[in-house]
Specification:
Structural class: mainly alpha
Organism: Coregonus suidteri
GO molecular function: calcium ion binding; calmodulin binding
InterPro entries: Calmodulin_Regulator_PCP4-like
Protein name: Purkinje cell protein 4
Shape: flat
Largest sheet: none
Family: Belongs to the PCP4 family.
Length: 67
């Protein structure tokens, strides 16, 4: 049975478990190069969706702070 290697929060690499040594907490993750076509329609749709969700979050945050 083979395991897939994930990255970030999905792979569980973003947090250290309580049993690990504190020196491993500062371990750096190697940077990855991403080739994203900024002119692709899918990229534009994704950017609009992300911005929309962020605006909703900001609006909710403002209304929660006022309460």
């Amino acid at each position: 049975m083979s395991e897939r290697q994930g990255s970030g929060a999905a792979g569980g690499n973003s947090k250290t478990s309580g049993g690990q040594d504190a020196s491993k907490k500062s371990q750096e993750v190697p940077a990855e190069d991403f080739d994203i076509d900024m002119d692709a329609p899918e990229t534009e749709k994704a950017a609009v969706a992300i911005q929309s969700q962020f605006r909703k979050f900001q609006t909710k945050k403002k209304t929660d702070d006022k309460s």
